[in-house]
Amino acid sequence: xxxxxxxxxxxxxxxxxxxxxxxxxxxxxxxxxxxxxxxxxxxxxxxxxxxxxxxxxxxxxxxxxxxxxxxxxxxxxxxxxxxxxxxxxxxxxxxxxxxxxxxxxxxxxxxxxxxxxxxxxxxxxxxxxxxxxxxxxxxxxxxxxxxxxxxxxxxxxxxxxxxxxxxxxxxxxxxxxxxxxxxxxxxxxxxxxxxxxxxxxxxxxxxxxxxxxxxxxxxxxxxxxxxxxxxxxxxxxxxxxxxxxxxxxxxxxxxxxxxxxxxxxxxxxxxxxxxxxxxxxxxxxxxxxxxxxxxxxxxxxxxxxxxxxxxxxxxxxxxxxxxxxxxxxxxxxxxxxxxxxxxxxxxxxxxxxxxxxxxxxxxxxxxxxxxxxxxxxxxxxxxxxxxxxxxxxxxxxxxxxxxxxxxxxxxxxxxxxxxxxxxxxxxxxxxxxxxxxxxxxxxxxxxxxxxxxxxxxxxxxxxxxxxxxxxxxxxxxxxxxxxxxxxxxxxxxxxxxxxxxxxxxxxxxxxxxxxxxxxxxxxxxxxxxxxxxxxxxxxxxxxxx
Length: 545
Ligand code: G16
Known about the structure:
By secondary structure, the chain is of the alpha/beta class.
């Protein structure tokens, strides 16, 4: 073999700045000559090189996943990596990649995904780096990567044929061992350690019916293996199970808008007992019972209150964490359990230190993410399995579990309104105006509601003391309602304004109300405070979840 290592000159590319979760851009941006190469070399340089190191590599199977993986392998070889552990077909769900990094003691990993964003030549692509703990790189590391992208002048790559990633086993690329592994096996084994598979199996054997929508994305093979093969759910329980490069033309985003078929099924006469969906890279989840949608914020709270039904959590929880815009439902559970509750900025990376320090066991976000200390990413199938474990243990339907939960803790009515592809300057103007008003807001009345407090969320990491400022505008009203305004860090077009709306109804209030109705005064106050229509030019949100 005439493998040859080249040092290739490049210009820095503008805007290779990792956002909430890695670098996300239009696929065609990534397809420009040297773009993936410049970013990959910047990652390698920012982490002190990869000579002698072991990295995990895989992605969600979207368009360009396979091409980017081959480039990264040739660059890892040229940069002297000792071993690259790659999922067969260059596939790995994000939680499975996190697990592999941890289990194999790797120095980190590169995950190819734009998560729930659509895939295809004209859609989105992404790359993110996870550290040796298996979690998303901290802001210190992503800042160092970004700094490097601004000065990079060359990258190293090996001339070589594509590695056959369809065959399990080891091959060599120069001195680097490329190990192609089954993407599902280790992850499925981990799940079997955490949950009472016998109880879940017996529930399915008694006729419990479920549908899991893999949305043509990466969780299909994982869900088939776990739900149908290991737990005995009826064949056909997992639908849209084959990962496709364009996710079948849809948004692989498990929410009531993009998984509306599943919601329709669960609200109709032929609903099974339970339904769930996951996203492009397998870290998000949506939970539904017959006739009921469980919001991600409520799901976190219910899982926290019931986790001890699962063997992996039988000893109880150290604490729970939620991102700031996530409803405060989980805090109420933590208070009742006498454990710590933490409020972090949006982004799974902020949970890493708390999990590593053993301060929290469960974490979650309003953006359909829930997880625990079993890996360092949110984990869609994990959440589904914990729900199944709880349903098996309590032998009650989802709606009864929710009614019971709200009767005990009260209900946090919750909704998120997204305004997408807003011109960046207009979105910035809205946020800047709010920032300028903060000190004058307390005491002001907006419709029925009076502002109690308002601030721009700032987070001091309790483990390493690092500070993250300007993480979202919080407006708290005297009746304990809340509105949060922030700009998304994952969009690829203009700005996405997210408005998070929340209203608490105590244990004895009417919990059966329609959430939109319950939130009416909060929605009106949000418009009055922020003048959303005027700034965005829109009458209504593009997506409501
Ligand atoms: C990512 C992050 C999450 C975050 C979500 C939305 O999820 O990992 O922590 O909550 O984006 O972020 P934003 O509101 O900034 O768009 P995923 O599933 O896209 O990786």
